[in-house]
Hints:
Elements lengths: L3 H17 L20 H16 L9 H17 L29 H5 L1 H5 L7 E6 L6 H9 L2 H8 L10 E7 L2 E7 L9
Antiparallel strand pairs: 1-3, 2-3
Amino acid sequence: MKTPLLRYLILITLLFPMLFGCETDSVDDKDNYNDKVTLTPTELEFYNMIMEYRAGLSLPSIPLSSSLSYVAQQHVADLEENNPTSSSCNLHSWSAGGNWTACCYTSDHAQATCMWDKPRELTDYIGNGYEIAYSHSVAATPEGALNGWKNSEGHHNVIINAGSWTTEWKAIGVGIKGKYAVVWFGHEDDPAGTI
């Protein structure tokens, strides 16, 4: 039988967070993602290389987004560790191995919203995210990824705001891990700011 003092201590323990506004969410809650975003030297080189390429074409620099970089880093980690790709699921796919909704992105773009929604799902970014992805059999590099995208009209158009991608990018995020490199673009400013 519990004593009145023990019942009182249990009640206070349960009510304390509600009464005093203490956070009880887990560390993996999306509200805390911004504290985890840092770029590796290779990722910073990657971002700078893309901005230098755009500048050479008289295009403006795109602010480096904390939110979109977080999404990019989560995605390259998922690609490297869980390999959600298959004969029908391409590099924009996400596994069931993380704190996100899994999806198989097919070449017919039928599941495009599963990619577009990832920034809102994982961060406080309010707009869609548009990703270009690259893989290499050994290790992805900034040079290899950018050169690969320069030779692919659709990917190149995203980088240089051409074709159906003529609207201004206001946010960009980068991620490189192992064999994978991705860049995320967004039309809205990032409320979480830049890195």
